[in-house]
Amino acid sequence: MGNITFEPMFDSRVRSYTVEFRNADGTVLQTGTQLYGSAIVYEGSTPVKEQDDRYTYTFIGWTLNGGTEVLSTLPAVSGEMIFTAAFEAVERTFTVTWKNCDGSTLETDTNVAYGATPSYDSDTPTKAADEFYTYVFAGWEPELAPVTADVTYTAKFDALVRSFTITLDPQNGTVDPTTLTVNAGTPIGELPVPTRQGGWVFLGWYLEPALTAFDAGQSTRVTAETVFSGNTTIYAHWRLPGDVNGDGKVNMTDVTLLSTYVKARGSGVNIVPCSSDVSGDGKVNMTDVTLLATFVKARGNGVVIH
Ligand SMILES: [Ca+2]
Ligand SMILES: [Ca+2]
Protein backbone atom coordinates (compact mmCIF):
# COMPACT_ATOMS: atom_id res chain seq x y z
CA MET A 1 0.00 0.00 0.00
CA GLY A 2 1.53 3.17 -1.00
CA ASN A 3 1.18 6.41 0.63
CA ILE A 4 -1.92 8.12 -0.04
CA THR A 5 -1.32 11.62 -0.67
CA PHE A 6 -4.15 13.99 -0.12
CA GLU A 7 -3.78 16.81 -2.44
CA PRO A 8 -5.64 19.86 -1.41
CA MET A 9 -8.48 20.31 -3.87
CA PHE A 10 -9.32 23.79 -5.04
CA ASP A 11 -12.17 24.60 -7.27
CA SER A 12 -10.37 26.41 -9.93
CA ARG A 13 -13.68 27.56 -11.54
CA VAL A 14 -15.02 30.94 -10.64
CA ARG A 15 -18.50 30.45 -9.35
CA SER A 16 -21.47 31.85 -11.26
CA TYR A 17 -24.69 33.18 -9.89
CA THR A 18 -28.21 33.82 -11.04
CA VAL A 19 -28.87 37.47 -11.81
CA GLU A 20 -32.46 38.38 -12.41
CA PHE A 21 -34.39 41.55 -13.11
CA ARG A 22 -38.01 41.73 -12.16
CA ASN A 23 -40.69 44.29 -12.62
CA ALA A 24 -42.53 45.62 -9.57
CA ASP A 25 -45.30 43.08 -10.08
CA GLY A 26 -42.83 40.20 -10.08
CA THR A 27 -42.69 39.70 -13.82
CA VAL A 28 -39.24 38.47 -14.79
CA LEU A 29 -37.72 40.93 -17.23
CA GLN A 30 -34.29 39.38 -17.64
CA THR A 31 -32.59 36.41 -16.08
CA GLY A 32 -29.27 34.61 -16.49
CA THR A 33 -26.17 33.39 -14.72
CA GLN A 34 -23.05 35.44 -14.50
CA LEU A 35 -19.60 34.90 -13.11
CA TYR A 36 -18.79 36.28 -9.77
CA GLY A 37 -17.41 39.77 -10.12
CA SER A 38 -18.69 40.33 -13.62
CA ALA A 39 -20.48 43.49 -14.58
CA ILE A 40 -24.24 43.41 -14.67
CA VAL A 41 -26.04 44.94 -17.59
CA TYR A 42 -29.79 45.21 -17.96
CA GLU A 43 -30.61 44.92 -21.61
CA GLY A 44 -34.38 44.88 -21.51
CA SER A 45 -36.71 47.75 -22.13
CA THR A 46 -37.38 50.28 -19.44
CA PRO A 47 -39.84 48.82 -16.95
CA VAL A 48 -43.28 50.36 -16.90
CA LYS A 49 -46.08 50.38 -14.42
CA GLU A 50 -49.59 51.19 -15.57
CA GLN A 51 -51.18 54.30 -14.14
CA ASP A 52 -54.10 53.85 -11.84
CA ASP A 53 -56.91 56.24 -10.97
CA ARG A 54 -54.72 58.31 -8.75
CA TYR A 55 -51.11 57.96 -9.88
CA THR A 56 -48.86 57.64 -12.81
CA TYR A 57 -45.55 55.80 -12.26
CA THR A 58 -42.07 56.69 -13.35
CA PHE A 59 -39.25 54.16 -13.35
CA ILE A 60 -36.43 55.42 -11.16
CA GLY A 61 -34.04 52.46 -10.97
CA TRP A 62 -33.55 49.13 -9.27
CA THR A 63 -33.58 47.81 -5.76
CA LEU A 64 -31.57 44.75 -4.85
CA ASN A 65 -32.72 41.61 -3.10
CA GLY A 66 -35.72 43.17 -1.43
CA GLY A 67 -33.92 46.25 -0.25
CA THR A 68 -35.39 49.69 -0.40
CA GLU A 69 -32.43 51.64 -1.65
CA VAL A 70 -32.65 52.54 -5.30
CA LEU A 71 -29.26 51.81 -6.75
CA SER A 72 -27.54 54.54 -8.67
CA THR A 73 -25.45 52.01 -10.60
CA LEU A 74 -25.62 48.28 -10.94
CA PRO A 75 -22.98 46.50 -8.85
CA ALA A 76 -20.82 43.62 -10.02
CA VAL A 77 -22.02 40.09 -9.40
CA SER A 78 -21.49 39.15 -5.79
CA GLY A 79 -23.96 36.34 -5.38
CA GLU A 80 -27.55 35.52 -6.25
CA MET A 81 -28.99 38.85 -7.21
CA ILE A 82 -32.56 39.85 -7.84
CA PHE A 83 -33.12 43.40 -8.99
CA THR A 84 -36.60 44.80 -8.74
CA ALA A 85 -37.83 47.81 -10.67
CA ALA A 86 -38.57 50.82 -8.48
CA PHE A 87 -41.13 53.47 -9.45
CA GLU A 88 -42.00 56.90 -8.25
CA ALA A 89 -45.73 57.50 -7.93
CA VAL A 90 -46.79 60.82 -9.38
CA GLU A 91 -50.22 62.03 -8.44
CA ARG A 92 -52.40 62.55 -11.48
CA THR A 93 -54.26 65.81 -12.07
CA PHE A 94 -57.45 66.32 -13.97
CA THR A 95 -59.37 68.91 -15.93
CA VAL A 96 -62.78 70.02 -14.75
CA THR A 97 -64.83 71.78 -17.42
CA TRP A 98 -67.92 73.82 -16.62
CA LYS A 99 -70.39 74.39 -19.40
CA ASN A 100 -73.59 76.28 -19.78
CA CYS A 101 -76.65 74.53 -21.15
CA ASP A 102 -75.93 75.91 -24.62
CA GLY A 103 -72.58 74.13 -24.67
CA SER A 104 -70.46 77.23 -24.12
CA THR A 105 -67.60 76.80 -21.70
CA LEU A 106 -67.93 78.90 -18.56
CA GLU A 107 -64.77 77.82 -16.76
CA THR A 108 -61.96 75.32 -17.13
CA ASP A 109 -60.04 74.12 -14.10
CA THR A 110 -56.81 72.36 -14.95
CA ASN A 111 -54.41 70.47 -12.69
CA VAL A 112 -57.14 69.53 -10.28
CA ALA A 113 -55.85 67.00 -7.75
CA TYR A 114 -57.31 63.56 -7.43
CA GLY A 115 -60.09 63.58 -4.88
CA ALA A 116 -60.42 67.38 -4.85
CA THR A 117 -63.88 68.88 -4.65
CA PRO A 118 -64.80 70.60 -7.93
CA SER A 119 -65.16 74.33 -7.47
CA TYR A 120 -66.93 76.65 -9.88
CA ASP A 121 -65.73 80.21 -9.31
CA SER A 122 -67.18 82.22 -12.19
CA ASP A 123 -70.42 84.14 -12.53
CA THR A 124 -73.61 82.23 -11.88
CA PRO A 125 -74.74 80.68 -15.15
CA THR A 126 -77.72 82.32 -16.77
CA LYS A 127 -80.19 81.34 -19.41
CA ALA A 128 -82.12 84.01 -21.25
CA ALA A 129 -85.84 84.21 -20.73
CA ASP A 130 -88.00 83.29 -23.65
CA GLU A 131 -91.56 84.21 -24.40
CA PHE A 132 -93.04 81.97 -21.76
CA TYR A 133 -90.38 81.23 -19.19
CA THR A 134 -87.62 82.69 -17.14
CA TYR A 135 -84.82 80.39 -16.05
CA VAL A 136 -83.13 80.04 -12.70
CA PHE A 137 -79.80 78.28 -12.26
CA ALA A 138 -80.41 74.99 -10.46
CA GLY A 139 -76.99 73.40 -10.08
CA TRP A 140 -74.93 71.05 -12.17
CA GLU A 141 -75.35 67.88 -14.11
CA PRO A 142 -74.03 65.45 -12.98
CA GLU A 143 -73.95 66.04 -9.25
CA LEU A 144 -70.62 67.39 -8.03
CA ALA A 145 -68.32 64.66 -6.74
CA PRO A 146 -64.64 64.40 -5.77
CA VAL A 147 -62.48 64.47 -8.88
CA THR A 148 -61.22 61.07 -10.05
CA ALA A 149 -61.04 61.74 -13.78
CA ASP A 150 -61.50 64.51 -16.31
CA VAL A 151 -65.07 65.65 -15.94
CA THR A 152 -67.51 68.10 -17.51
CA TYR A 153 -70.33 69.69 -15.57
CA THR A 154 -73.26 71.29 -17.32
CA ALA A 155 -75.49 73.96 -15.79
CA LYS A 156 -79.10 73.04 -15.08
CA PHE A 157 -81.97 75.49 -14.97
CA ASP A 158 -85.47 75.52 -13.57
CA ALA A 159 -88.05 77.04 -15.90
CA LEU A 160 -90.43 79.47 -14.26
CA VAL A 161 -93.56 80.52 -16.08
CA ARG A 162 -93.39 84.23 -16.69
CA SER A 163 -96.19 86.24 -15.17
CA PHE A 164 -97.14 89.85 -15.64
CA THR A 165 -99.02 92.42 -13.64
CA ILE A 166 -101.88 94.04 -15.49
CA THR A 167 -102.86 97.35 -13.91
CA LEU A 168 -106.44 98.47 -14.45
CA ASP A 169 -106.84 102.22 -14.79
CA PRO A 170 -110.59 102.96 -14.54
CA GLN A 171 -110.11 106.54 -15.83
CA ASN A 172 -112.49 108.46 -13.52
CA GLY A 173 -114.40 105.34 -12.60
CA THR A 174 -113.79 102.73 -9.93
CA VAL A 175 -112.78 99.11 -10.31
CA ASP A 176 -111.90 96.22 -8.05
CA PRO A 177 -109.40 94.66 -8.23
CA THR A 178 -107.03 97.23 -9.64
CA THR A 179 -104.41 94.70 -10.72
CA LEU A 180 -104.47 91.23 -12.24
CA THR A 181 -101.70 88.71 -12.61
CA VAL A 182 -101.52 86.77 -15.85
CA ASN A 183 -99.15 84.06 -17.00
CA ALA A 184 -97.27 84.38 -20.24
CA GLY A 185 -99.09 82.71 -23.08
CA THR A 186 -102.34 82.49 -21.13
CA PRO A 187 -105.38 84.67 -21.96
CA ILE A 188 -106.19 87.10 -19.18
CA GLY A 189 -109.75 85.84 -18.81
CA GLU A 190 -112.78 87.80 -17.67
CA LEU A 191 -111.99 91.38 -16.76
CA PRO A 192 -113.73 93.28 -13.98
CA VAL A 193 -116.30 95.84 -15.07
CA PRO A 194 -115.64 99.33 -13.71
CA THR A 195 -118.35 101.78 -12.76
CA ARG A 196 -118.54 105.53 -13.13
CA GLN A 197 -121.02 107.96 -11.70
CA GLY A 198 -122.89 110.48 -13.82
CA GLY A 199 -124.42 108.29 -16.49
CA TRP A 200 -121.18 107.21 -18.06
CA VAL A 201 -121.36 103.90 -19.90
CA PHE A 202 -118.38 101.60 -19.84
CA LEU A 203 -117.12 100.83 -23.32
CA GLY A 204 -114.34 98.44 -22.52
CA TRP A 205 -110.72 98.09 -21.57
CA TYR A 206 -108.11 99.36 -24.00
CA LEU A 207 -104.38 99.53 -24.26
CA GLU A 208 -104.48 103.26 -24.99
CA PRO A 209 -105.40 105.87 -22.41
CA ALA A 210 -106.68 108.49 -24.83
CA LEU A 211 -110.34 108.61 -25.76
CA THR A 212 -109.55 110.41 -28.98
CA ALA A 213 -107.59 107.41 -30.13
CA PHE A 214 -110.58 105.25 -29.35
CA ASP A 215 -112.89 107.56 -31.18
CA ALA A 216 -110.69 107.42 -34.22
CA GLY A 217 -110.98 103.65 -34.13
CA GLN A 218 -107.29 103.24 -33.49
CA SER A 219 -107.41 101.76 -30.01
CA THR A 220 -106.80 98.18 -29.09
CA ARG A 221 -109.55 96.52 -27.13
CA VAL A 222 -108.55 94.18 -24.33
CA THR A 223 -110.77 91.12 -24.00
CA ALA A 224 -110.80 87.91 -22.01
CA GLU A 225 -108.78 86.38 -24.84
CA THR A 226 -106.00 88.94 -24.78
CA VAL A 227 -102.54 87.54 -24.11
CA PHE A 228 -99.91 89.82 -22.58
CA SER A 229 -96.17 89.70 -22.96
CA GLY A 230 -95.17 92.15 -20.25
CA ASN A 231 -96.42 94.27 -17.39
CA THR A 232 -99.16 96.42 -18.85
CA THR A 233 -101.60 99.14 -17.85
CA ILE A 234 -105.00 98.96 -19.48
CA TYR A 235 -107.51 101.79 -19.50
CA ALA A 236 -111.25 101.93 -19.11
CA HIS A 237 -112.97 103.84 -21.86
CA TRP A 238 -116.30 105.51 -21.28
CA ARG A 239 -118.93 107.25 -23.22
CA LEU A 240 -121.53 109.68 -21.98
CA PRO A 241 -124.72 109.21 -24.03
CA GLY A 242 -125.76 112.51 -25.55
CA ASP A 243 -122.40 114.22 -24.98
CA VAL A 244 -122.06 114.94 -28.65
CA ASN A 245 -119.17 117.40 -28.30
CA GLY A 246 -117.27 115.32 -25.75
CA ASP A 247 -117.02 117.97 -23.02
CA GLY A 248 -118.34 115.63 -20.30
CA LYS A 249 -121.73 117.36 -20.03
CA VAL A 250 -125.04 116.80 -21.81
CA ASN A 251 -126.83 120.05 -22.57
CA MET A 252 -128.29 122.21 -25.34
CA THR A 253 -124.87 122.68 -26.86
CA ASP A 254 -124.89 118.99 -27.72
CA VAL A 255 -128.40 119.23 -29.18
CA THR A 256 -127.34 122.12 -31.38
CA LEU A 257 -124.16 120.38 -32.53
CA LEU A 258 -126.00 117.16 -33.29
CA SER A 259 -128.62 119.06 -35.26
CA THR A 260 -125.92 120.82 -37.26
CA TYR A 261 -124.18 117.52 -37.86
CA VAL A 262 -127.35 115.82 -39.13
CA LYS A 263 -128.30 118.74 -41.35
CA ALA A 264 -124.81 118.85 -42.84
CA ARG A 265 -124.98 115.05 -43.33
CA GLY A 266 -121.83 114.86 -41.26
CA SER A 267 -119.64 116.89 -43.50
CA GLY A 268 -117.26 119.25 -41.69
CA VAL A 269 -118.82 118.71 -38.23
CA ASN A 270 -116.99 116.79 -35.51
CA ILE A 271 -119.02 114.81 -33.05
CA VAL A 272 -118.37 111.90 -30.68
CA PRO A 273 -120.08 109.14 -32.66
CA CYS A 274 -120.52 106.68 -29.82
CA SER A 275 -122.35 109.29 -27.73
CA SER A 276 -124.57 110.60 -30.51
CA ASP A 277 -126.85 107.69 -31.42
CA VAL A 278 -128.98 108.35 -28.37
CA SER A 279 -131.89 106.31 -29.76
CA GLY A 280 -129.64 103.30 -30.02
CA ASP A 281 -130.80 102.26 -33.47
CA GLY A 282 -127.36 102.31 -35.01
CA LYS A 283 -127.94 105.50 -36.98
CA VAL A 284 -127.39 109.17 -36.19
CA ASN A 285 -130.22 111.25 -37.58
CA MET A 286 -132.97 113.73 -36.69
CA THR A 287 -134.62 111.21 -34.39
CA ASP A 288 -131.55 111.48 -32.18
CA VAL A 289 -131.65 115.27 -32.27
CA THR A 290 -135.27 115.27 -31.16
CA LEU A 291 -134.74 112.68 -28.44
CA LEU A 292 -131.67 114.46 -27.11
CA ALA A 293 -133.53 117.78 -27.03
CA THR A 294 -136.34 116.15 -25.06
CA PHE A 295 -133.84 114.60 -22.67
CA VAL A 296 -132.06 117.89 -22.03
CA LYS A 297 -135.29 119.83 -21.52
CA ALA A 298 -136.57 117.19 -19.06
CA ARG A 299 -133.19 117.24 -17.29
CA GLY A 300 -133.13 113.51 -17.79
CA ASN A 301 -136.36 112.81 -15.97
CA GLY A 302 -138.25 109.95 -17.56
CA VAL A 303 -136.31 110.11 -20.82
CA VAL A 304 -133.94 107.30 -21.65
CA ILE A 305 -131.04 107.84 -24.00
CA HIS A 306 -128.37 105.39 -25.02
CA1 LIG B 1 -121.51 117.98 -24.17
CA1 LIG C 1 -130.26 106.95 -33.70
Could you describe the 3D structure shown?
By secondary structure, this protein is mostly beta strands. The chain folds into 4 domains: 16-91, Sandwich (Immunoglobulin-like), CATH 2.60.40.4270; 93-161, Immunoglobulin-like; 163-239, Immunoglobulin-like, CATH 2.60.40; 241-306, Type 1 dockerin domain (Orthogonal Bundle). 9% of the residues lie in helices and 33% in strands. The chain contains 3 helices and 13 strands, in the order βββββββββββαββαα. Helix 2 (252-263) runs antiparallel to helix 3. The relative contact order is 0.08. The model has no long low-confidence stretch (mean pLDDT 92). One calcium ion (CA) is lined by residues 277, 279, 281, 283-285, 287-288.
Q: What are the defining features of this structure?
A:
single chain; 306 residues; mainly beta; Immunoglobulin-like; 5-stranded mixed sheet; rod-shaped; binds calcium ion
- State the helicity in percent bands: under 10%
Q: How much of the polypeptide forms β-strand, as a percent range? A: 25-35%
Structural class: mainly beta
At the fourth level of CATH, the homologous superfamily of the largest domain is Listeria-Bacteroides repeat domain
CATH topology of the largest domain: Immunoglobulin-like
Mean pLDDT: 92
Uncertain residue ranges? none
Give the helices and strands as they follow along the chain.
EEEEEEEEEEEHEEHH
Order of neighbouring strands in the sheet with most strands: 10-9-13-11-12
Report the major sheet: 5 strands, mixed
What count of structural domains? 4
Tell me the span between the first and last alpha carbons. 168 Å
Q: What is the CATH class name of the largest domain?
A: Mainly Beta
